[in-house]
Each structure stands twice: as structure tokens, then as C-alpha cells.
Amino acid sequence: MGAARPAVRERGWRPGRPVDIALTLSPLRHGRGDPTWRRTPDGAVWRTSRTPDGPGTLRITAAGGEVHAQAWGPGAEWLLETLPSLLGADDDLTGFAGTLAAAARSGPAAARHAAIVAWLAARLPGLRIGRSQRVFESLVPAVLEQKVVGREAWRAWRWLVTRYGEPAPGPAASAGMAVIPPPEVWREIPSWDWHRAGVEAVRARTIVNAARHAGRLEATACAGAASAEADRLLRALPGIGVWTSAEVRQRAHGDADAPSVGDYHLPGIVGWALIGRKTDDAGMLELLEPFRGHRHRVVRVIELSGVRPPARGPRMPARDYRSF
């Protein structure tokens, strides 16, 4: 007899409004070859997660206004239960519409910017700000992405998850998918493997220290705590600043008002889209102020528009810490 097929659990959900699954879940993907995220030719999005109940794999498709999900592993029930939040069921689109209307009434400049944002948002009707409720799962890649180019951070993420994680429950394992290691494993990764992954001591120490406080951090998302409290706890940890905290809260808490201040590219992109010239962090925040409550959403809409300032000067170089 052949080996028993792993048990699968299923759920259907009608969101009542358009939801672009791949677009909404794409912030949870960290580069090509991410072992925790995959989109297959049939349009399904697969992702793995270490839930409060254990590892799980989730496969999501949508057709005819209905989302269909399948899940495997000890975390299957949790993944299915939290599916609506993951896909933006808690996302306040009515509040966003009100923010745009208020911005349009607050002065000529803000009105022009609101019109641009509204036009760009209308081209992305299925975009939602989802809430994964898994803080440490978003924290590790955010720390790896500090002050380095994306491909360097994504290589480290891929190497560490593949080496120290476990095969994804269900059929995703045969495609090389894996589940992020638990915090206690991150605490025990030896210095030479951080080096092999291309992660220098500062980022490694930040992740190891955060792993010691993972339970408290996870509680902020599970209990539905205010994002401001999550920000306070995150930034109390050495090595975690405003940019990293925002990146985590966007994904784990679904915070539509957490712009990534300190990003290498975002101020230039936002400035170019709204006023036709690049700006800095202070200038970006000034431009986003009329959209308070939805500043991250506005940045995301602008990012996805493809509007970019002309490329001039050298690109930020990749630094391979494995050769140091």
C-alpha cells in the first residue's frame, strides 16, 4: 500500500468585495525562491506559517466572488479561521474613502494629491491590507532587509529557512517549500551559519534577541492590541527602529497607517508621484499627512503604480558578508 496522503482541511469564504489574492499577499513574499511563499500557474497562492498551533501550509484560490482555501498540518485550522483577516476583511476601505474626501477639501495641493491617489487606487480594486497575526514571522525578514539590497536579504532568508526550518506540511514539501523555524531555533543558530547566510553580527544579534521576546511580541497581534503598543514594544528591542517596526506592523497587524520611514527608495517614489520631484523622509511625511490613518496604503498604491523617478547615479551595491 502507498503512504497515506496528508489530511487536508478546506474553507470557502465570500468577501463581498473584490480581493486580489496575489496582490494582497505579496508583501509576505521575500524575493524569488522564497520557500514560504509561492504562486503556481493555476493562480493559486501557497504560503507556510508557524501558527500558535504549529506549522501549516495554506493554498488559496478565488473564482466567482468566492475564496477557496485548503490547509495542511497542525496549524491548518488556525490558518483557515484567520483567512479573512489575512485577506483584508478588517481593512477599513470606507475610512480610506473618507480620508480621500477630507484631503480633497483641505486645500489645492492636497486636493491634487488626493485626486492622484484616488485614480491610482481605482486601478487596484482588489488591493487589501491584510493581517497575518504572526509578528516574529514578519520581524526576521524585516531585520534581514535592514540597510542592504533586497537580493542580499532574500538570499539570507532563503538559506536560513531552508537549513533550519522544516518541510511544509502537505504537498508543498515536494516543491521545496518550508516553514520558518520557531524562535528557540533562531536563538541557537551558530555564528558560522549566520556568516554563511551572509548576515553580519549586528543583524544576527537583533534577531536572536527578538526571538527571546517572541511570545510577548506575538501577543500584540493575537490580542488585537493597538499598533502603537506594538510599535512601542518592537522599538524597545535593540536594533529595531522605526523602519523595521513599520514593516512588521504592516504585515502582522494590517496597519494601513505605518509608512516605512527610512526606506532607501520610498521618499523619491512618493515625491515623484505627487509633486514631480524626489524628496526625503520629512518631505514624504509632509505629503502623506493629509492621508493620516492610511499613509501606508497610499505608499503601497503609489509603489504598485510603477511610477518612478528617472534612474540616475550608481545603484546601492550588494555587500556579501560571507567574504568578510
From TrEMBL:
Keywords: DNA damage, DNA repair. GO terms for biological process: base-excision repair, AP site formation; DNA alkylation repair. One of its GO terms (molecular function) is DNA-7-methylguanine glycosylase activity. InterPro entries: Alkylbase_DNA_Glycosylase/TA, DNA_glycosylase. GO terms for cellular component: cytoplasm; protein-DNA complex. This is Putative regulatory protein Ada.
